[in-house]
Write a structure and sequence with these properties.
Layout (H helix, E strand, L loop, with lengths): L4 H10 L11 H15 L32 E10 L9 E5 L15 E5 L5 E7 L11 E7 L6 E7 L9 H4 L12 E2 L2 E3 L6 E5 L2 E3 L3
Helix pairs in contact: 1-2
């Protein structure tokens, strides 16, 4: 009979073949192994296309719109981790998007940023909900993430409230082959901020180690 990984680990612990540097009981050692298994069992963020509108040299800025800018305010927050469950400080997050009318700024750096994460690996951006355009009618934000010791990731964030999904992202995410993975479509929360409401999404990023 083929043993499961848990049975193999239990057998190794019982025979003294798997030890801890700390004074743990057999049950404690198994629990620590299980915690490590859970921590390391993270799937990488699905990849997506780069698109034609990437532009080098974006500034390290976290507020991408100015007062009075057309469009519904949006806050994007998240953190960068890897498939082992470790936070990844010092990651570089390049992101870019269309304005409310679906137009990209190709002359300057409006709605573009290159952010460096700190020790916490968290990031936050104040922007607006991107508009639609004919070639890619689902609202989206482009990402290019790089970090030492990890594979560079190109992906996109999408919005569950987007009319493109007709109120059912689970059923319609594959519509026209636009979205590569249902996982990239995020729940949108409406925040009653002082003065004006805004939308918010969480877009955590999980990188693969090299």
């Amino acid at each position: 009979m083929k043993l499961t990984r848990r049975e193999i680990v239990e057998n190794c612990i019982g025979r003294g073949l798997l030890l801890s540097a700390l004074p743990l009981t057999q049950a404690g050692l198994l629990s620590a192994w299980q915690e490590g298994e859970t921590k390391g069992n993270r799937a990488p963020t699905p990849r997506d296309v780069l698109g034609p509108f990437f532009k080098k040299g974006a500034p390290n800025q976290r507020v991408l719109h100015t007062p009075g800018t057309p469009g519904f305010p949006l806050r994007v927050v998240g953190k960068v981790m890897n498939t082992r469950g470790d936070r990844v400080p010092g990651a570089r997050i390049e992101l870019w998007q269309a304005d409310h009318a679906g137009i990209y700024d190709l002359e300057g750096f409006r709605y573009r940023a290159a952010i460096l994460t700190g020790e916490s690996s968290d990031y936050a951006v104040e922007t607006i909900l991107p508009g639609h355009y004919d070639d890619r009618p689902a609202q989206h934000i482009h990402y290019l993430i790089s970090a030492p010791g990890h594979r560079t990731l190109i992906t996109q964030a999408y919005f569950a409230t987007d009319p493109f999904f007709e109120g059912n992202p689970d059923k319609n995410y594959g519509k026209r082959g636009i979205v590569k993975s249902r996982e990239l479509i995020r729940t949108v929360t409406l925040v009653e901020a002082p003065g004006t409401p805004r939308a918010s999404i969480n877009f955590d990023i999980c990188l693969e180690k090299v």
